[in-house]
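As a warm-up, study this chain.
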Amino acid sequence: MKKSYDFYLKYIKQTKYVPLSYDDFGDMLTSLDYIIIKNETEIEGLLVYLEKDYVDVNLILGKTSTFRHMLEQLLTKTKKDLRIHYQKPYPLAWYANEDMIHPNYLGVIVDSTLHKVLLDFGFKDTSIQDTYYMNLTTFKMDRTIHERLEALNNQGYDVALYNPSKHTHMTYFLDNLLSSSFKTAIENNLNKQKPYPLLIVTKDHRIMGFAGPLCIADDFRGVFSGIEILSDVRNLGLGKILFQHLCFTLKKMGARYMTLFTGRNNVAKFIYLQSGFKVAESFALMLYERN
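Now compare it with the structure written out below.
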């Protein structure tokens, strides 16, 4: 185990990963399966994976010359298609910049050496995900946001923290969300003894959008599970209004920064960029389909 961890520390320094502790590294290897390439004196490559619906590749590390060899071994040991995805069996944090940590390494950095090796091996990109970051300590809400919300107030719209005694139609709202994971996150939060704050968009007190639940991680990262506006009230600028209120609220709660990710073709990225976010890194999600 010590030799494996020494190898891991040597090569992890060449990446953006946040290094695991000795115990967490051992937990990852115990929880998942792995392939090791070594010569007579030292370990040269490590591939960590788990086979369920797919063979999810969690980590590839070491000398570039070992990557293809490990992938070939992986094909002989498993039966399912190989996948590199953000839904990792063992999430690994990484540095979006030197001071900001995103809790899950999403895929493979676009145009990296590993990305090129995987493409040459037969993997295909299934999507490109961009990770964004922003320093919240300097965040200020756009003046036009206040003006736009005031105009919408006259039509019965508002942005506020959820108050069950005031805001209505939560069940209808949850049933009409496009994302089932957002619905689950909201329901789980509301079932807590002390739920985290939930920012909502309302029309005459009826819930029509949300951002949250909102909390602060130990490293002062502002955390939220999702953001969505119901189709009934889109194209009014409510998405940008809600998102900037989200940033402002997290800052007031004590968050110092935020990170998030979205697909490159998702139009929501323009809201993030207009709010002051910058792209930290672009990741490819990849799939190897067996013949």
